[in-house]
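Write out the 3D structure for:
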Amino acid sequence: MAETVAFCGVPSPVGDILIAITETGVAATGWHDGTRRRARLAARLDLPEVSDPARTAPAHEQFAAYFAGELREFEIPVDWRLTGTTSGHTVLETLYRTVPYGSVVTYGELAMRSGTGVPARGIGSIMGGNPIPIIVPCHRVVAGNGLGGFSGGEGVESKRWLLTHEGHLAPTLF
């Protein structure tokens, strides 16, 4: 049987989240669900799209629970195929395994922790290309002197919301 990809969308306070799930696990997440976005992602994965509610239900349920404040650690398998180079994959997997809910790491600390030799500025580029945001929590990587950048959703405001949601930042008055 040929491999396929199934999609689901989850509404959230930071926008609609699109989730792509192969037989292996979640291969991609991102903002802005839609037919064209799904088609582009299926092409990037080089997999045909199928409707498979049984496959997508666990991811949908876990994302909904995360945004409701009921889930701190995703328990759905990850398909790492879009994580890029060996060093990029290592950095993302290090982030995934060592930076839990409610905590952060600086770009420089993640560079050292990964053992890849990728400099802090390169870590920022890897975070910007992270194909599985939220599950692989690139929002938890911050600059030494502030939040740093963020390319998901509404940019840094989405990062701020996610870090506040996880209890790392105090809520603001406005």
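DSSP finds six helices and six strands in the chain.
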